[in-house]
Amino acid sequence: MSHDDHHAVVIPAPGSEFVPHTVAHHFSTPVQEFQAGKLGFWLFLATEILLFGGLFAAYFYFHELFPQTFRVGGEQLDWRLGALNTSVLLLSSWTMAMGVRSAQTSQKTKTIVYLILTVLGAVGFMVIKFIEYRAKNEHGLICFGHLFDGYDMASGQVSWFKDYHGVMANVPHGHMFFAIYLTMTAIHGLHVIIGAIAILYVLRGTAMGRYHAGYYLPVDLVGLYWHLVDLIWIFLFPLLYLVP
Amino acid sequence: MSDKTQSDHAQGDGHAHGELDMGHTHVSSSAMFMTVLIALLFLTFITVAVAQFDFGSANMLIAMGIASVKASLVIAFFMHLKWDTAVNKLMFLSSFLFLSLLFIFTLADQFTRRLDHELHTTPSEPVDGAWVQPAKSDGPH
Amino acid sequence: MTTNTPAIDVQKSPAAAPRENYLNCSKGFKSWALTLDHKRIGLMYLVGVSIAFLAGGLFALLVRLHLWEPEGMLFTNIEYNQIFTLHGAFMVFLFVIPAIPGSLGNVVMPLMVGAKDVALPKLNLLSFYLWLAGAVLAVLAIVLGGFDTGWTFYAPYSLYTDRAIVTIGMAIFILGFSSIFTGLNFIVTVHKLRAPGMTWFRMPLFVWAIYATAILQVLATPVLGITVLLVAFERLYNIGIFDPRLGGDPVLFEHFFWFYSHPAVYIMVLPAFGIISELVSVHSRKPLFGYKLIAFSSIAIAVISFLVWGHHMFTSGQSTYAMFAFSFLTFFVAIPTAIKEFSWVATVWKGSVALNSPMLYTLAFLIIFAIGGLTGVILGALNVDLHLHDTYFVVAHFHYVMMGSIALAFFAGLHHWWPKMFGVMYNELQAKIACATIFIGFNLTFLPQFVMGSRGMPRRYATYVPEYVPYHQASTIGAVILGAGVALMVFYLLASLLIRKKAKENQWGGVTLDWIAPTPPPHLNFDEEPKVVHEVYDYSTLDYDSMQRDC
Fold it and tell me: Sign of the C-alpha dihedral, residues C321, C327, C333, C335?
């Protein structure tokens, strides 16, 4: 496609450790490319809000129907680990914001440092989550080994909810709290992992000098995604660990 | 329709922004980010502290209220929406609006089902002209 | 058609090669499979959704043939459940929802706003491949046991039935993201890539329609995504939120499902409205009556559509108060819809009407949609719906809007933009015959269904009592006629690509940017970036010469 060349808009590199950025052929100006990318990504974040929102709607619905189940269920979760995870994510949001700012001001080394710290935050979050899940497994509240084994029609007992200590014995449908807990935190965890991978991607690009004051859009967008992940947890934490 | 171009409020590290940054982005200050982080951690502490007390049905509202404040800080400052275009604000925030429709109607359905019991009555005598199941004493069918 | 030879016409020289356009500018499988050109992507969608439409239509014919006899002629009851589910699922998820935005929207909308492409071309290609992946998974689901829940997958049956529900659920999840990304792309394109001088109120109404659709695609589809995900999780590890045996509430499933699926019907119909707006103007050579009304009504429909979903659930066990609210709100959506219908009729009134094939489909739409829309209002009345719910009256209503209106508008748009897309014209006489056949066949199929539905014939029943035989048989005959009309349409459209009778540069005399662009358009749509100085639908700017000369 030879007729693109004379349309190409190139943003110069602000130093030898950076590379120039060529604006995509269908955009007329760099500003247009930047704004289009941002708008598109905010729209994508809107869809994520609605996706998770459905899960929250289910949570509220059953919280109203079975308040005892949710109260007792919530007491089985360790709020200290939850609070720790919240702090880890908030800190990683801060490092991410600082990382975007560093890219925006063409500070390559600082950007790399902040991005690495953010990924470490993600890893820390998943480690704490793993510890929590393991505790649930040990108490028989979520037996991961039996997760897909169906349920016994006669007794209505779900095969992965064994409740070794009988903590949910006096509330109706005890397993439901943990099913919702697992679904919401697992989908959230999946987004943490995806976010971490995305951060590694822009980390690589940063190391190659692709992002600078003239073009830092990918870092910005990955940052927005990471903040969304934090945002969802800000609501998940009190609902699951504290309100009951 | 032209989009607002925003003047550059570059602060913090003294770095040349001349021909590169297209004059359309606001650079937040490190101090601002740190302030927001401290506020977020503090609010987390408040959330946990408040949860030690039982306010009954207000528990949910208080927790969600504090979470909403934290969320607003993340959205406005970390996600930079405060300095972003009106269109982006509208697009993102409208998702919460429509989500609230899902919440409102499904929860309202559940709440008002209890009121339904007052509406439903079972007639004790068959009404004239209405289709009625023949009573068992009517003889062989 | 005149035979005037224009004074200057470089294309007429016999040795001249065809002008470079998006179809011939590059060749080979990879140039299509990895294309970033919205017009090529639109064509790939067109092929895909057309195949899906024909498959869905085949399932429909099987349904109608089976129902020729009261005891059912072809299938066991269980098999019948699978067949009508396949018809519904294929049509809804693989055709009606993606077709117009994916095919005509992709090809025409960027041209209409004067852009070189959509804002995010790679995302556009991804959207297409997601559609394809969803289609493949849907076929795989058939192989793995099919699904017999109806396209609505109601819990608890969808949780218990021993079928490939997780597979088709994943197909729908992927198709949902195809839809979301398309909508996202179109919103950004309309906001950021309009040509200089194209203010919001100089945009053609097809763009407004696509924009309103895109908002729905972005805001509503994620809830479908989470719903199918939750059904899959229920089947996989028994969460219990929809399963009454585990404390769940099947009505909650319906709330989630219809929160998307009601806006979804507007995702389906708004693009059709956009096509009709364009066609009534061009083929009456008259500006749209009530341009701003039509534009705002598209947005109004999009917003109101989020408030009415409970009208699909009047017999499901919601609270009575919720039902009052939903019924009351449902009436409001009729208002902007009626505004459109009246504005279109007023546009045609005293216009210079050309009764060509696109216009015939358009006129058919105006008649059929009036019936479809009005019967929707009837169903919105709570007290009436309690009797008509799950009868053939509902089936007839939604086929009048989905097949008779949306599909017909799709055909109309296809005929209207065929010369622009391919530079060739189809056989006009065959087109008129096909249109008449489709109109007659369609009404014969579905008009009896209103009657038998109001007389109690339930939907989704494999057998029925003998009193409904005349209605079912009339309906089946209609379906065969409808199928014949569609077959003829497919035939002459494909034949036109082989016969290659050249179209005119501006076949119908349109004045929007899609008709200003060359026919067929070059790779980057315009040789120079267009600058918009006139109001939209200003026919005083029409270049009559372009209507005479071949493209």
Answer: negative
Q: What is the pLDDT of residue C445?
A: 97
Nearest to A173 among C115, C223, C240 (CB): C240
Q: Please tell me the distance from the alpha carbon of residue C158 to that of residue C149, in angstroms, as a whole number.
A: 6
Res. A153 pLDDT band, cuts 50 70 90: confident
Nearest to A130 by CA among A185, A195, A52: A185
Report, in this order, helix, strand and coil percent for chain C, each rounded to 5: 70, 0, 30
Question: With 50 as the cut, is the pLDDT of residue B31 above it?
Answer: yes
Q: Which helix (H) or strand (E) holds C304?
A: helix C291-304
Residue C423 belongs to domain spanning: 38-548
Strands A10-11 and C424-425: unpaired
Of C508, C505, C486, C488, nearest to C496 (Cα)? C488
Q: Rounded to whole angstroms, how far apart are CA atoms B45 and C307?
A: 38
Burial of C206 (0-12, 13-18, 19+ CB in 10 A): buried
State whether B79 and B93 are in the same domain.
no
Residue B136 lies in a domain: no
Q: Are residues B68 and B109 in the same domain?
A: no
* Chain-chain contact of B102 with C307 (C-beta, under 8 angstroms): no
Is residue B51, in this structure, part of any structural domain at all?
yes
- The pLDDT value recorded for residue A156 is 74
In a domain, B108, yes or no: yes
* Residue B37 included in any domain: yes
Into how many domains does chain C fold?
A: 1
Question: Does the CB of A222 have a partner CB in chain B at under 8 Å?
Answer: no
Q: pLDDT per residue over C388-427, tens digit each?
A: 999 999 999 999 999 999 999 999 999 999 999 999 999 9
Residues of B in contact with A214 (CB under 8 A): 20-22
Distance CA C529, CA C115 (A): 8
pLDDT per position as a tens digit, C420-469: 999 999 999 999 999 999 999 999 999 999 999 999 999 999 999 999 99
Q: What is the mean pLDDT of residues A65-81?
A: 91
Q: What is the CATH number of the domain that holds A56?
A: 1.20.120.80
Tell me: ipTM over 0.85.
yes
Residues B55 and B101 in one domain: no
Statement: residue C5 has pLDDT above 80: no
CB contact under 8 A, B102 and C259: yes
On the 0-12 / 13-18 / 19+ scale of CB atoms within 10 A, A230 is buried
Those of residues 92-121 in A touching chain B at CB distance below 8 A are 93-94, 96-98, 101, 104-107
Whether the per-residue pLDDT at B1 is higher than 50: the answer is no
Residues B76 and B113 in one domain: no
* pLDDT tens, residue by residue, C129-150: 999 999 999 999 999 999 999 9
The chains found to touch B (3+ Cβ pairs under 8 angstroms) are: A, C
- From its phi and psi, is residue C119 left (phi > 0), alpha (psi between -120 and 50) or beta? alpha
Q: How many domains does chain A have?
A: 1
Q: How high is the pLDDT of residue A244? A: 59
Domain that holds residue B105: 85-120
Q: What's the burial of B29, exposed, middle or buried (CB within 10 Å: 0-12/13-18/19+)?
A: middle
Confidence (pTM): 0.91
Of B33, B48, B107, the CB nearest to A61: B107
Q: What is the DSSP letter of C203?
A: S
Query: Domain of A205?
Result: 30-242
- Nearest chain B residue (CA) to A235: B67
Pairing of strands C424-425, A151-152: unpaired
Average pLDDT along chain A: 91
pLDDT at C15 (0 to 100): 45
Residue C550 bridge partners (DSSP): C504
A–C: how many Cβ contacts below 8 A?
124
C-alpha closest to that of C273 among C305, C295, C244, C253: C295
